[in-house]
Amino acid sequence: MPVKRFFYVFFLIVMVVGAALAGVVAGGVAVYKVMAQKQTTIPVASQLSTNLINGSPSQTTKLFFGSTQIDTSITQVVQNVGPAVVTVTGTIPGQSTFFGQSPASTVSGTGVFISAQGYILTNDHVISGAQNLTITLADGSTQPVTVVGADQYSDIAVLKTTGKVPAVATLGNSDLLKPGETVIAIGSPLGQFQNTVTEGVVSALNRSLDTGNGYTINGLIQTDAAINPGNSGGPLVDLAGEVIGINSYLISNSSSGTAVEGLGFSIAINTAKAVATQLIQSGSLVRPYLGITFQVITPDIATTYSLPVQWGVYITAIQSGSPAAAAKLQVGDIITSVGGIAMDQNNDYINLLFTHKPSDVVAIGYYRNGQTYIVNVTLGQSQSGG
Fold first, then answer.
1. Against a cut of 0.85, is the pTM above it?
2. 247 FRET partner, CA 20 to 30 A, in 82, 221, 295, 315?
3. CATH class of 287-382
4. Is the pLDDT of residue 95 over 80?
């Protein structure tokens, strides 16, 4: 190859390599600039996540949920509250039937220590009718418990053990809750999976549920944290590590048969505390008392049986010596109002009755033989109401 041509080719090669290197350098500078720009937006969120997970006192970013200052993570909440949660089990005796004696059955639920003296908060429906009650602690050990008191209408019960108390849960203030707050449910679903943790939010407040037994339970907390059979009586906890509800109800499907999810309900802890205090002090909850056994009337029932009223309670029995007997109410009467408030879909008999106190004089409206009447009744005192 001639010398002149050789230098010409060499010169072209150098130019191409130089241009490529310049492009690499320029591209690298551009990438560096972009990365540098992105780096300014990353540390805040990254540091926040790190602080929440690690929980370092010197680095923890303080968050505010409602009026409560939060310095802890979900993991820390569970570590603190978990040891205070217990599994409650008992035996329902067999019943005599036409075919003989039915076998005994086992019931289970959850509870939570609320006192160093061994008091445990749970649901009435967990322990109702059960014998030989025991609790299983988080470490797997078991202890016998006794029933201090229970209230059907609030679905709250208090148990007591003389054994060790590994931890006591802190009770919060459910009046401060707001929809959207993160909450944690701890319990023993199916009685097998002890201290299971589920997370969700407060979906709504002040919900009411018809129990199907002639009364509703009001003031409930609705949550989408998974609550399964066996979770009943367990705590619903906020991110401050305080119990703000006692898990009680789960709606798994609607009346139409459509499957639904995320519909759990808890008794507000302020209600549970008020009931538990009376149960611990006296073993019972004082309720106003009329002294009747009744069948609830709704529009569907009224249509089916051609009844003259859409809402009310049909008296099926009257206790001897009761306020109802003194007021000369009769079997077959239909009570339609209490204290001047008519019964309807929002005002059932029990809840209207429970707005009054024992010894109150209350106007009872009732229907008899095609006529409506009003009688003033002095309410009595009962441990259950009715």
1. no
2. 295
3. mainly beta
4. no
Mean pLDDT check: name the lowest of 2-6, 103-107, 346-350. Answer: 2-6
Q: What is the pLDDT of residue 103?
A: 74
Overall size of the chain counted in residues: 386
Dig out the tokens for 46 from the structure.
């990254």
CA distances from 189 to 107, 110, 157, 200, 230 (A): 12, 8, 19, 16, 4
Give the CA diameter of the chain. 133
Let me know the angle formed at the C-alpha of 47 by 46 and 52, rounded to the nearest 5 degrees: 105
- And the tokens for 26? 């320029």
> Per DSSP, which regions of 164-281 are E strands?
170-171, 182-187, 196-210, 216-223, 235-238, 242-250, 264-268
Active site residues: 125, 155, 232
Report the SS3 class of residue 130.
coil
Contact 311, 349 (CB under 8 A): no
β-partners of residue 80 are: none
Domain boundaries of the chain, sorted by first residue? 65-96+104-285, 287-382
Q: In the numeric block, which tokens belong to residue 253?
A: 């499907």
CATH class entry, domain 65-96+104-285: mainly beta
Chain-centre distance of CA 271, in angstroms? 12
